[in-house]
């Protein structure tokens, strides 16, 4: 205990993570070597994470969840790690991504840009690089955002993949992002997405006008226990709604949106028509 270093959880997200590891460990009467043995790490490694001299990894966070029994909870170490890794993202979004990866049904409506779950790497890179040019993100943060797109898309091809229903506002396919070749590849990706057995893709045309129930992007998740969650963003932060009763009206509005939008076949035809301008 002579060399024990005082921790300042408010110093940084990594410091908060390390302080929580120490508190959880000491509450069980374990030494750093004891915890390291249970997590398949050395005591020296545990010490470095606790004092924020070493950043935690996803493997470390998941090992901590396994040992402390916090896996799959809203305040898991994995969730805290994601908040550290994606600190440049909107508040609330890292938490949402954790639920998205476990959802059995994903319904989303997007305006102005192809949603991350459907973006090609090139399309995602153009968007991320634009944030760097505007001074809204560092090159490192932009790289993290592109990597996160690929990470989220892995949920679409996992064993027992979720049902994914996407309604795009027409602005998503009319707005050019990058060179024509980037958009052409993105359109091809949309068409491939529509052909998957666990997906539905529709485009809500401008002509729908006031018949569309949403004016901003919205996502509704159905979890394995059939509970509902919704996620929406403002300019400053994202909001994850976990109360099923509050989400039900959004789900009803989403069904109304689908009923008003053209069929998948007609939507794919619209995408192909717009795509002609990129070839």
Any key phrases for this structure?
single chain, 279 residues, alpha/beta, 434 Repressor (Amino-terminal Domain), Endonuclease, Chain A, six-stranded mixed sheet, 12 helices, elongated
Commentary on this structure:
Strands 3-2-1-4-5-6 form a 6-stranded mixed β-sheet, sandwiched between helices. It is elongated and about 65 Å long. The longest helix is centred in the C-terminal third of the chain and has 17 residues. It has 279 residues and is an alpha/beta fold. The mean pLDDT is 89. It is 49% helix and 12% strand. It folds into 2 domains: 73 residues, lambda repressor-like DNA-binding domains (434 Repressor (Amino-terminal Domain)); 147 residues, Endonuclease Chain A (Endonuclease, Chain A), CATH 3.30.870. The chain has 12 helices and 6 strands.
**Fraction of residues in helix:** 40-55%
Distance between the termini: 68 Å
Number of helices: 12
- Compute the gyration radius: what is it? 22 Å
Please tell me the CATH architecture of the largest domain by its name. Answer: 2-Layer Sandwich
The helix-strand sequence is: HHHHHHEHHEHHEEEEHH
Mean pLDDT: 89
Q: What fraction of residues sit in β-strands? A: 5-15%
Largest sheet: 6 strands, mixed
Major sheet: arrangement of strands? 3-2-1-4-5-6
Question: What is the 3D shape?
Answer: elongated
Q: What multimeric state do the chains show?
A: single chain
Question: What class would the helix/strand composition place it in?
Answer: alpha/beta
Q: Return residue spans where pLDDT drops below 50 for at least 5 consecutive residues.
A: none
Total domains: 2
